[in-house]
Design goal:
five-stranded parallel sheet; two-stranded antiparallel ribbon; 13% strand; 178 residues; alpha/beta
Length: 178
């Protein structure tokens, strides 16, 4: 300390302390790179497919008629255990968590195949097998975007909320065998 009572190193200590406090912020501003995760591309694809998806949300009657047509695949992207409990008759199970280019190609070899999708949020009355999610987390949304991301071009989505007791869509699975 000098005779004036002022520590000559004080300004340097303040600068060093400031740098130490700001270092984590500087690191946080630097992006964490991972070439297998691209949120920007996800948002772009979601924005591009949004108007197409809206035009391809179909009624119960349209879903039933289209699902009966040759070459149409009804895809159930819920977990395998929920699919086993209850699914639309004839639907193919491929859980969303298992989507890869290879697994999709095994189930849907042609990118222009007509694909019909549905999820938990299309049905009421079966809380174990068709438990509703919060609306923004609806599996239909993620499934549609993922299929489009993998290059599938002919996707249709069941639109309405239906009661399992009154829907005309036929179900099968272990939950119905009680």
């Amino acid at each position: 300390m000098s005779r004036s009572g002022f520590d000559e190193d004080e300004p340097m200590k303040i600068i060093l302390a400031s740098l130490l406090l700001l270092a984590p912020l500087a690191q946080a501003a630097e992006p964490i790179r991972n070439p297998l995760i691209d949120y920007t591309a996800f948002r772009k694809i979601a924005a591009e497919v949004q108007p197409i998806r809206e035009k391809r949300r179909i009624t119960e009657e349209q879903f039933a008629a289209m699902s009966a047509e040759q070459g149409t695949i009804v895809l159930d992207a819920r977990s395998a255990d929920k699919y086993g409990m209850r699914h639309i008759r004839g639907a193919v199970s491929l859980p969303f968590t298992d989507f890869t280019a290879e697994s999709l190609a095994r189930v849907i070899p042609k990118k222009d195949t007509r694909i019909l999708i549905y999820c938990n949020n299309n049905f009421l009355g079966a809380p174990r097998s068709l438990a509703s999610k919060v609306a923004p987390a609806s599996l239909n949304i993620s499934t549609y975007i993922a299929l489009a991301t993998y290059g599938y071009t002919n996707i249709f989505e069941l639109g309405p909320l239906l009661d399992v007791a009154t829907t005309k869509l036929p179900f099968e699975g272990t939950e119905l065998q009680r």
